[in-house]
Amino acid sequence: MVVVTGLTCPVKVINFSLSNRVLVAVSLVLTAFLGLSAISLNNAFKSSAELEQKKRLKNYVYTLLTAAEINDKGELKMTHDLAEPKFSIPNSGLYAQITSSGKIVWQSPSAIGHFLSLPFQPGPSNEHYTVVDVDGGMKLQNLAFGIVWETETGKELDYTINVAEDMSTIKETTASFQRSLWYWLGGTGLMLLLAQWLILKWSLRPLHDVAKDLHAIETGEHHRLNDEYPRELKQLTNNINALLDHEQSRRQRYKNSLADLAHSLKTPLSVFRGELANNHDLQSLKSTGYEQLDRISTLVDYQLQRASTEGKSSLLAPVSLGEIIHKIIGSLDKVYKNKAIRHQCEIERDAYIHADEGDMYELLGNLLENAYKYCKHQVHVIATSSGNMVKIRVEDDGAGIPTRAESYIIKRGHRIDTQAEGQGIGLAIVSDIIMAYEGNIHLERGRLGGASFIVELPRI
User: Fold this and answer.
1) In the predicted model, is pLDDT for residue 10 greater than 70?
2) For 323-381, what is each residue's pLDDT tens digit?
3) Residue 14: pLDDT band by 50, 70, 90 thresholds?
4) For 75-85, what is each residue's pLDDT tens digit?
5) pLDDT tens across 282-307, in order?
6) Where does the record place the Histidine kinase domain (predicted)?
7) Residues 94-138: pLDDT tens digits?
8) Which pTM value belongs to this model?
9) Same fold for the pair 69-170 and 318-458
10) What pLDDT shows up at residue 392?
11) Distance between CA atoms of 94 and 56, rounded to whole angstroms?
12) Are 329 and 342 spatial neighbours (Cβ–Cβ below 8 Å)?
């Protein structure tokens, strides 16, 4: 908000698209580059033109020297036919003057009608460049060159040759160069901007394709992004696809859990309804009711746990299995304190997995609680990593599992010890979590003599 003279007015922030931002930034940089290039080239051309003019003036000095002669009286005489015709053309822009002891001894015909005050004497064999202002606002680049002329009698005469050229020639040449320079740089700049726009449009097309695919997903036309994207966008699109697959898997688990729950509730509800209709013994009816309500509660807990399982996703943060195992064992040691259980853990330092921490607590908690419940005095936990997989082995020294039961012990509703409390859903939850993470579980006889559960899960 901006306050102006007591009035409050909103400021609208313009939100440029990515392509427009890049195009504006490139246009500004290109404009600045071309502008600085034009200034640099113009200064370089101007310096080169001035240097070239100074070289010409020096050549004109040598031209005048070849045309000069000393007569018998020691006077300097110039031939009428000079090698440079501009010296003979009035107002040609090229002027010459020879002085001696501050007096003009010769002046080129081109200087007729102009008062040229060029008396500077740099000394013998020296040269000096100056800019001289003359009448009419004209500026001349002047070269004063000192010479010593020795006569036949051995007398030395000091002369100063001044050669001056109109600087408007350089200005006109520089102005013409500037016009050509801006014309070509302007045309080149427009062509570069057009090429840059086409390059940006081509380069940013994958981003537009991503937006288009996301819109298609929103409208239900597609379920995932396609895989034809540049390498720089692969990680982004793969993560988006992983997120979409993860959400779709969760929705499917919710639907399956609700369907299974509805189907599972039919039996206890039917039993309860039948007892209400046919059994008039209040005590028996009460006992049956509690039994069926416990069963319903167990089924609801199981399906809720099954539905809340996150499942495999590369977007989940890494979880340390060692830390979770130690926390669970610490709690179970307190619960089963009377059994005096000795536990041994062999966990690699890099045994971690990208998973939901709650899922790992539920998975490892059920396996370890099962081991603590059925062991005699020992529980052994091993966690190792190999490549992209993590292997977890939970062993105990209990009675073990009969061979005939190994194939179905981890299925929902199956228990070996029917005298224990519960409905046998702990290992079923373990099986569902492992399935959601695309892992596997199997049983075998452990080295301690009891059951050995081996779980393999992908790290990512």
Assistant:
1) no
2) 999 999 998 988 888 888 999 999 888 788 888 888 888 889 889 998 999 899 999 99
3) low
4) 778 887 788 88
5) 777 777 777 777 767 766 766 666 66
6) 260-460
7) 888 888 877 888 888 888 776 666 556 677 778 888 888 776 678
8) 0.50
9) no
10) 93
11) 11
12) no
Backbone angles phi, psi at 38, to 5 degrees: -65, -45
pLDDT of 232 above 80? no
For the chain, domain boundaries: 69-170, 231-308, 318-458
Q: Which two tokens stand for residue 206?
A: 């994958």
Q: Taking 80 as the threshold, does the pLDDT of residue 408 lie above it? A: no
Question: What is the distance between the alpha carbons of residues 236 and 229, in angstroms, rounded to a whole number?
Answer: 10
What is the 3-class SS of the chain, one letter each residue?
CEEECCEEECCCCCCCCHHHHHHHHHHHHHHHHHHHHHHHHHHHHHHHHHHHHHHHHHHHHHHHHHHEEECCCCCEEECCCCCCHHHHCCCCCEEEEEEECCEEEEECHHHCCCCCCCCCCCCCCCEEEEEEECHHHCEEEEEEEEEEEECCCCCEEEEEEEEEEECHHHHHHHHHHHHHHHHHHHHHHHHHHHHHHHHHHHHCHHHHHHHHHHHHHHCCCCCCCCCCCCHHHHHHHHHHHHHHHHHHHHHHHHHHHHHHHHHHHHHHHHHHHHHHHHCCCHHHHHHHHHHHHHHHHHHHHHHHHHHHCCCCCCCCCEEEHHHHHHHHHHHHHHHCHHHCCEEEEEECCCCEEECCHHHHHHHHHHHHHHHHHHCCCEEEEEEEEECCEEEEEEEECCCCCCHHHCCCCCCCCCCCCCCCCCCCCHHHHHHHHHHHCCCEEEEEECCCCCEEEEEEEECC
| Residue 429, φ and ψ in degrees, nearest 5 | -65, -45
CATH topology classification for 69-170: Beta-Lactamase (3.30.450)
Residue 94 pairs in a beta bridge with 165
Distances (CA, A) of 203 to 192, 207, 208, 216, 439: 16, 9, 10, 22, 40
**Residue 188 CB contacts under 8 Å (≥ 6 apart), including other chains:** 34
Q: At 361, list the tokens.
A: 């607590």
Handedness of CA 16, 21, 25, 26 (dihedral sign): negative
Query: According to CATH, what is the number of the domain 318-458?
Result: 3.30.565.10
